[in-house]
Specification:
Layout: H1 2-43, E1 48-53, E2 58-61, E3 69-70, E4 79-85, E5 88-93, E6 98-101, E7 109-111, E8 119-125, E9 128-133, E10 138-141, E11 149-150, E12 159-165, E13 168-173, E14 178-181, E15 189-190, E16 199-205, E17 208-213, E18 218-221, E19 229-231, E20 239-245, E21 248-253, E22 258-261, E23 269-270, E24 279-285, E25 288-293, E26 298-301, E27 309-311, E28 319-325
Antiparallel strand pairs: 1-2, 1-28, 2-3, 4-5, 5-6, 6-7, 8-9, 9-10, 10-11, 12-13, 13-14, 14-15, 16-17, 17-18, 18-19, 20-21, 21-22, 22-23, 24-25, 25-26, 26-27
Length: 326
């Protein structure tokens, strides 16, 4: 009897060990599957830069700006500005032309536009695209760039660029004009500007708006674009566009000028540029800065904008803007 009890106890103990092993194996398998799915999702669409320019030219890179190809364009008009949001790329330009792509810039269609005036820049935030242009014109779309309406504007002065941050759109333009919206671009008010020169581009990072323009002017706002102050600039060349990435602001402009700030736009230094022709646009993504410009020039930096290299371009047309597809 004693022997039977010992045998029965050993049998039950073995069953318990087998059951625990199965549970451990099942749990481990589930963790691996979840990790793989998350990795696949986060890498989707990464590494794609899209540039736009004169005569409707659209170029595209799928390897972090290393190599580029031409994309099919639906327009012969200049496309001056480009932006990305909600898996949609939107370009704006000459004669109010608006183009859009929903497949990472592979194919494009024209969108119906509410204006015939030239649009220079476009930004995205809170599920809204906002485009700005000639005569203070402001247009917006809340359906991923499919349809557009005119927004109320407080100025008749040309607007060149628009940025978004902290539920605020800020647009900048001629004569130092700065306007802002806190209702998703439905209406805009004038903001106080410290300059009377052209402001060509604006961006947002670390709760700070930074705008750049003529004669190397750089202004910044720490109160969501309500007021701006001058920052010390290292150049007298006109700066066209500015972008933020990896806690660094980078601006580009005339004569291939590239400047950068590592202290939230308070102070700036010149970076070494490989070209001496105008750079019209700059973007950041996947730890890479990409700038585009005259005669199809494309340059890139993988060390936070410290050094830059030329990239082979598929076009000799001017490139005015570039965006990154997340």
């Amino acid at each position: 009897m004693k022997h039977l009890l010992i045998i029965l106890s050993l049998f039950l103990f073995s069953l318990t060990l087998i059951s625990c092993a199965k549970k451990d194996s099942s749990s481990s398998s589930g963790t691996t599957t979840t990790t793989t799915d998350e990795t696949t999702t986060s890498s989707s669409g990464s590494g794609i830069f899209v540039g736009v320019g004169s005569s409707g030219n659209i170029v595209r890179s799928t390897d972090n700006g290393t190599t580029w190809d031409n994309a099919t364009t639906p327009t012969a008009n200049d496309v001056a500005g480009i932006g990305f949001g909600n898996n949609t790329i939107v370009g704006v330009g000459e004669s109010g032309n608006i183009v859009r792509s929903t497949d990472n810039g592979t194919t494009w269609d024209n969108a119906t536009t509410p204006t015939a005036t030239r649009l220079y820049g476009v930004g995205f935030g809170n599920n809204t695209f906002v485009g700005v242009g000639e005569s203070g014109n402001i247009v917006r779309s809340t359906d991923n760039g499919t349809t557009w309406d005119n927004a109320t504007t407080p100025t008749a002065t040309r607007l060149y660029g628009v940025g978004f941050g902290n539920n605020t759109f800020v647009a900048v333009g001629k004569s130092g004009n700065i306007v802002r919206s806190t209702d998703n671009g439905s209406s805009f008010d004038n903001a106080t500007s410290p300059v009377a020169y052209y402001l060509s581009g604006v961006t947002f990072g670390n709760n700070i708006f930074v705008a750049v323009g003529s004669s190397g002017n750089i202004v910044r706002s720490t109160d969501n674009g309500s007021s701006f102050d001058n920052a010390t600039s290292p150049t007298a060349n006109k700066l066209q566009k500015v972008i933020f990435g990896n806690n660094i602001f980078v601006a580009v402009g005339y004569d291939g000028n590239i400047v950068r700030s590592t202290d939230n736009g308070s102070s700036w230094d010149n970076a070494t540029s490989p070209i001496n022709t105008t750079l019209w646009g700059v973007e950041f993504g996947n730890n890479t800065f990409v700038a585009v410009g005259s005669s199809g020039n494309i340059v890139r930096s993988t060390d936070n904008g410290t050094t830059w290299d030329n990239v082979t371009s598929p076009t000799a047309n001017h490139l005015f803007g570039v965006t990154f597809v997340e």
